[in-house]
Amino acid sequence: MSLPLLQSDGSMPSQETDNLSQNVLNSGNSFPNSGMLSMIPNLKGSNANDFFQCLEKVGKLAGWNKEHLLTISEVKIEGPAKKYYDSSIKQNSELTYDAFKNFIVSHFADDQSFAVDFAKFSSAQQYEHESVRDFSVRLQSLVNKVFATTLKKMRF
User: Where is the segment annotated Disordered (predicted)?
Assistant: First the structure.
């Protein structure tokens, strides 16, 4: 008896993922390393940046092209992201992976202001049982969020 494979986010692979893997294997189309699909979480909207980062890293390892990445994205989409896709993106007959990614990321972007992000950074305190290393990593991620986002908006 074998145990079911879990995705990187701990959830079970979707039926669509299983179907995509099986269809690709049966069709004879070149889709290398389809077994790596289970490493990619589902795209829900709120996890758009993490989803695309994971997809592109796994895709690079697996040797997938942009057409593969688009197909996988369309299969892995669910929840609010699926509703947005169905209502606003799906009808685009010339949809590319890069355009799809831009639509999703911009639609689900975290639009908090610099002031809110900076307030979180400046008021950060080490938790009682948090190690110095963990606290420094948390601070660094706040710094990156505050200043990287601001610098992108400024575009020198």
Answer: 1-25
Q: Which of 92, 108, 124 is the last residue of a domain?
A: 108
What 3-state DSSP class applies to 104? helix
27 domain residue, yes or no? no
User: CB pairs under 8 A, 24+ apart, for 136-139?
Assistant: none
In terms of residue numbers, what domain contains 104?
Answer: 34-108
**pLDDT of 64:** 94
Give the N- to C-terminal CA distance of the chain in Å, as an integer: 59
pTM exceeds 0.70 for this model? no
pLDDT in tens, 130-148: 899 999 998 888 888 777 7
Residue 15 belongs to some domain of the structure: no
Tens-digit pLDDT profile for residues 4-30 = 455 555 555 555 555 555 544 444 456
- Residue whose pair of structure tokens reads 């610098």 in the numeric block: 151
List of residues 6+ apart from 40 with CB closer than 8 A: 7, 8, 51, 54, 55, 58, 72, 76
Count the neighbouring beta carbons within 10 Å of the beta carbon of residue 94.
5
